[in-house]
Design brief:
Elements lengths: L1 E2 L6 E2 L8 H9 L3 E2 L8 E2 L1 H11 L4 E2 L10 E2 L3 H7 L5 E3 L6 E3 L3 H8 L4 E3 L7 E3 H11 L5 E2 L7 E2 L1 H10 L1 H89 L5 E6 L2 H10 L7 E2 L3 E2 L6 E7 L10 E9 L13 E7 L9 E5 L19 E8 H4 L7 E2 L2 E10 L15 E2 L7
Antiparallel strand pairs: 1-2, 3-4, 5-6, 7-8, 9-10, 11-12, 13-22, 14-16, 15-16, 16-17, 17-20, 18-19, 18-22, 20-23, 21-22
């Protein structure tokens, strides 16, 4: 970090920019001499700043090693290193380690491991410091060593040889006694090992019995956990289904909401969804469509489709129901809802032989009264199309594993002005599986 030459405040590189106007003025200056005493350079001012200023051998510099010299000329730096810089690192002539010049004598006097010293035992040999310990304790002929036969004798190598020759009978007795003690110890260990093995066999038998008990208890615990999980799943299923339905509703409202009372519901992965409807329970039995409206501020509906059927159509037909949902503008609607509902399974072949059913909700049908909760019970056609007709040759109700269901809801302008007759279309107001 540099300082301003005027007020000595610290200046960072990010606060400095190149003054182009000043550059142009410098470029226009005449040629000049180098300002360093003794330098003969002569040239343009721009060349001075770009090239010569850093390369000038007569510029004043400080010692890079921090010895305190700040009056050096650049050309004298090598001589300063070679002669008088106390902090310049030099390689030790013995061990090759880099040592500052001011510490070189101390290094040789006490630290260099290659310096040789006289053996303190007085054997007359010069030994390097790094080998001194091993020499003094083991290699030196005058080193004091302990007799290995536990007789408490201590002497030099020569004295130890004479001692061993003179004390051979005693040493043999010592070895015999030690061997006998080891044999007794081995015998005791064998007896102890046999006792431990017997105890281990008993422990293993007890452990196997405990393992069988633990296994039975674990099986009972697993059964209870499984039962508890099923109960918890049953409790959470309703909340999970409701939460999932809310998320799906929001996404579908953004992407596919219809406001003209007409919905074309594409059911993808038909085979997989059909199998879920057949083998599942609760929310797995049906597929809900995106929400659609009869107008920008109209009634709010959705379809609920049981691919494996529901109620009277379970196992034989596709059941399609209409569900009236709470809407933002329900206070502006006429209740109960009255109009015409047309449900159709679309034929995707060229023949366009759509399977269609139409019904008119009754004036006392609770499914079409103003919702007081999130949604009313479903009402629709439990036998819209049979599974046999769905796969009938010549029609393509299912194509590329997709099924299309169309719903058209047309509110009546004058509710209940026309006669509402009973239409036998397999209608029912919900089923035990609908919520």
């Amino acid at each position: 970090m540099r300082q301003c030459p005027l007020d000595n405040e610290a200046i960072t590189r990010t606060e400095v920019f190149r003054d182009k106007n000043c550059d142009r003025r410098i470029t226009d200056l005449p040629e000049t001499n180098c300002g360093n005493s003794g330098c003969t350079w002569y040239g343009k001012m721009t060349d001075y700043f770009d090239e010569h200023w850093q390369a000038c051998k007569y510029r004043h510099i400080s010692c890079p090693h921090g010895c305190g010299r700040d009056d050096l000329l650049a050309r004298d730096l090598a001589q300063h290193y070679a002669e008088d810089c106390p902090l310049y690192p030099q390689a030790c002539t013995l061990c090759g380690q880099d040592v500052q010049r001011q510490h070189s004598e101390q290094h040789l006097a006490s630290m260099c491991t290659h310096v040789t010293e006289d053996c303190p035992n007085g054997c007359g040999m010069n030994v390097a410091r790094k080998e001194k310990q091993e020499h003094v304790t083991r290699l030196c002929r005058l080193a004091m060593q302990q007799c290995r036969y536990d007789c408490k004798f201590k002497g030099t190598q020569e004295e130890l040889k004479e001692h061993c020759a003179a004390s051979l009978p005693d040493h043999l007795d010592t070895v015999w006694t030690q061997n006998q003690q080891q044999a007794d110890t081995i015998s005791h260990l064998e007896d102890t090992t046999a006792a431990l093995e017997l105890g281990l066999r008993k422990a293993n038998s007890l452990n196997e019995s405990l393992n069988r008990t633990v296994t039975l208890q674990q099986a009972e615990n697993d059964r209870l956990k499984s039962r508890l999980a099923r109960l918890e799943s049953a409790v959470a299923a309703s909340e999970k289904a409701r939460s999932a339905a809310n998320v799906e509703d929001r996404l579908w409202v953004v992407e596919t909401t219809s406001h003209d009372g007409i919905l074309v519901f594409k059911i993808e992965n038909f085979a997989k969804r059909f199998e879920h409807s057949r083998s599942g329970s609760g929310a797995e039995c049906y597929v809900d469509s995106p929400v659609f409206f009869t107008g920008r501020r109209g009634y709010r509906f959705r379809l609920r489709v049981y691919l494996h059927g529901d109620g009277a159509g379970r196992g034989t037909h596709v059941s399609v129901f209409l569900q009236l949902l709470q809407g933002e503008y329900d206070q502006l609607q006429v209740w109960p809802f009255h109009g015409t509902v047309t449900l159709a399974v679309l034929d995707q072949s060229r023949s366009q032989h759509h399977w269609t059913e139409t019904f008119v909700p009754g004036p006392r049908d609770e499914c079409f009264c103003q919702p007081t909760t999130g949604a009313n019970r479903c009402s629709g056609v439990s036998k819209l199309i049979s599974h046999r007709d769905l796969h009938r040759s010549g029609s393509e109700y299912i194509k590329a594993d997709c099924l299309f269901i169309r719903a058209a809801v047309v509110p009546s302008r004058n509710p209940f002005s026309a006669r509402i007759g009973g239409i036998e279309l397999g209608l029912h107001a919900g089923s035990p599986n609908q919520g």
